Records
---
Amino acid sequence: MSWAFLRDLLSGVNKYSTGTGRIWVAVVFMFRLLVYVVAAENIWKHEHDEFECNIKQPGCENVCFDHFFPVSHIRLWALQLIMVSTPSLLVVFHVAYRENREKHHNQKLYKNTGKIDGGLLCTYLISLILKTGLEVAFLVLFYKLYNGFKIPRLVKCDIKPCPNTVDCYISKPTEKMIFLYFLVATSCLCIILNISELSYLIFKYSIKCYLKRHMKKQQ
């Protein structure tokens, strides 16, 4: 799978981000995207082939695998990466709208089309709220789908067409567990960064509005 589009998106967003936003981009690119491409994808590459049950009943192994892994960890992680990065497109589109508006009117309408103020500030705040919401939603989804953030070595399955309760073994559980914890940790770090940036921007804007009103009263 090519991740060039996501890399380009993150590079574009980095130009319009605050300091905390740039840290978020670095975390997503270095500790999530690169880890996924270089290491994690290979660990889950043959998870179905390496899932073994102590019975050769036709269909039993497939049904048990589907029950315990309704969605592959790695595919869900890939979907999470795409979804949490997508709201940043709102900021890129808004800046492009400002630039096109200036070209259409053939005059300078903004001091800096990429400066986070006015309508662009609202768009930026919305993108932060969406990213935070999606991060939390995916963490909850991971927890619900797999009954917690753990990967057992052995699972017991009694779903038809299995004739009785069979033991099924998951390959490389320790290695997968480490990457799963890393996934959760980086998601939590991104949530903290998003909330920090959101709080900073709201506080900064509130102070700016207060100072404006104070200056007007003095005049």
Note: The beta strands are 52-53, 154-157, 166-169.
---
Amino acid sequence: SGQKVCYGGLKHSCYKLAYFQDLSRRVGFEEARQACEMDGGALLSLESEAEQQLIEHMLQNLTKSGSGISDGDFWIGLWRSGNELATSSPCPNLYKWADGSISPFRNWYTDEPSCGSEACVVMYHQPTANPGLGGPYLYQWNDDRCNMKH
């Protein structure tokens, strides 16, 4: 239930994209994280602009393949735990990579993260949505409620 693509020479040499057109098969953040770990991997940490662009190209190739892919955001491995809200750090600084990466790279959509009850992060993939103030909802990041199905 996913497309696995491997590259030679990169630090993270394999990626697996799982996209479910059937809404009933989409899962919350924790379920997605567990599925990746059961598969021997981790939810994606995007550690550079180059890696972000690589994933964007992979998603573009997936949509070109005629698989009928439509709107549906993708969970990535960035999140914040609710008990950190009591600290004095600004909310955007509280987001951490689930796999322990310390990369500071971020690709937030305009006015994100909105914080509040939204603590888990998706990469936007809404090709049919009308663009907002930050442009099309494609590939930038947004914090969302962790129980949302993506």
Note: The chain has a mean pLDDT of 87.
---
Amino acid sequence: YAPWCPACQQIELTWESFAKESEQLDITVGKVDVTQEPGLSGRFFVTTLPTIYHANDGVFRRYRGSRTLEDLQGYVLERKWEAVEPVAGWKSPSSIMMHGMAGLFHLSGWIRQIHSYLTGTLGIHVWISYAIFILTTLLIGLFLGL
């Protein structure tokens, strides 16, 4: 979820009720703010918000059902998740591919912080910051090419 997302705000009370009932359902319910954890959004290939996953014994399934409390509970109690196709191996959050994707999301956050530092703290013009990144990219490419 993201705090600014209207759909996330709409499901928030339902999700919190679902979390309160988690002990009775013998499950763990959590939520992750993708603005605070960009690596996880990359690892889970989050393209829409909110995105709900069911994980059991290292197998991940994306929940695409109704977002009412009754349907969420039924998904667990009636074991409806067994009929849902697991996330493909290469898209699984524990795969090497998704570890790399998480790394790219962390890298983009790091680049954003450097850009903010250059433009905000040091007062460098935005275009000069872009030029620094372009030159750095070219130099890294030349170095790796050698």
Note: The mean pLDDT is 88.
